[in-house]
Structure formats: C-alpha cells, structure tokens
Design brief:
mainly beta; serine-type endopeptidase activity; 280 residues; eight-stranded mixed beta sheet; six-stranded antiparallel barrel; globular; serine protease
Amino acid sequence: MSFKMRAIWFCVVVTFTFVESSSQIGSLRGYFSTKPEVRIINGEVCKPHCMPYIVGINLEMPYGNDFCSGSLISPNYVLTAAHCLDTALKAEVIFGAHNITANEPTQVHQMVATDNFIIHPGWGNDGQLTHDLALIKLHQPVAENEYIKIVELASGTDRYVSSIGRIAGWGMTSNEQTVVTALLRYVDGTIMSKKACRLVDSSYRRIIRDTHLCLSGSSSRGNIGTCGGDSGGPLAVDGVQVGIVSFGTSQCGIGKPSVFTRVSSYTDWITSNSDVVINK
C-alpha cells in the first residue's frame, strides 16, 4: 500500500448562521479550516509507541486518497473526526504503527466499509464547526498488546483548563510536502479556557462553543499547533483523551489556538453508539 496521499485538507467556506452581515461573512471566509495536518510546529519524533492508542486511517475518497488519525477506544471501536469520514468510500485502519510508511511487525491493518462509519448526526447541520466526531466500528476486535492500547476517555465532569495536552500525528512537516511524515511526531501545549480562546480575535469569538477545547498556539518553545496533528487524532492529558483534532486557522504557525472537539461533551453519544463505558 502506498502512503503517497494528502492528509485531509477541507477548507471551510464560512456561511455561519451566527454571522449577521455579508461583510462579516467575507471577513471569516477561509479563516478557519479543518485541515490541521500541515506540519507539527516545534514538535518532536515520539519514542516508538509512545501513544499506543493512536491509529492511522488511510481513506479512499472520491477524488483520491487522504489520511487521518484516530484513537482506539475499545477492541471494537475507533474514535475520529466526522470531517474525515463524511465523504470517504472506505478506510484502512492501522494500529501499532510508529513508521506509518513501513510494514512494521507491530502493525495490525483492518479494512472498514462505510456501513461501519457512525458520524454524529449534528455534524454539518448547523453551519458551524461543531459535533465533529465519528466512530468506526471494526469488523474484528483488536487485541491489546505492548504496541496497541485502548485509551481512557475523559468523563463528563472533567475540564482540564491550564493542563498540558499532547497531540500527535503523521502529518506533513512543511507546506511543500505532499506525503505523510513517516515517523509519529508529537507536541505539548496548554489547554485554554473557552473565554481566553474566544478573546483571541473576533473569528474565534464567533465560532468557539462549549463543545470545543482550545490548545494555545504558543509555548516557551515558540509557536505550536495542530497544523501537525492529523485530523481526528487525540488530544491527551496524562494519557486520558480529552479532545479530537478538529480545526485551526488556515494560516498555520502564526500562534493561534488549535481547536478540538471536547470529548466530555459527547460521552452519552459515544456510549450510546459503541460498547465503551465511561465512568462519570
């Protein structure tokens, strides 16, 4: 299998229901994008299997191949972003990978058809970037081992403001790059409050909701962000998944926050549509 593919690059033409005038629409057009995969800014290569719950997702699309990430949340289910799957024809899910372009002995591959995609019914219905999550039901259970683990999901009461969150992925490392990065990379950042995130600028103020989490775009190491974590990948705090990579600004590397679907806002939906049990 070839991994010469594009990571998801889904530009948003903004016609949000909360925009009040055509001039406001023009100011937001192209500002946000669900394409957080261009490069990991100031990130590092993970030690092999440092996040054993992260999975790669090779997607067959009507226009070619794309790539997303996700997380193993039970032996039978993977959690990812809705925008990764909403037009996909089928998916190859890769577990236990460090070098995603190699056929490593630790890897387990599974092909999944669209019948096993469970996309949140609210995605795309309100004109805003909310409810960006989906499940993949696996055809066969995946066994845990040293290289493949199930991630714990955040409960409905957890907030995590000011906590250090970790994102990772095989996203591209430069705007010029056209293939995924071979080795898993990660970066750590501080989770912001909703108020602080909305105060970044008027565009963030209009789009950020309670169901989002924001990761600061700057740190002591410089600008960071999910321009390098593949779409659908996990945001984790101390090994607990608190977010799903959703979107960022269309200009990567300028120090603006990256935005995630807040896992704790969707515990009921996840448990109702899978075999996952989340302690509240």
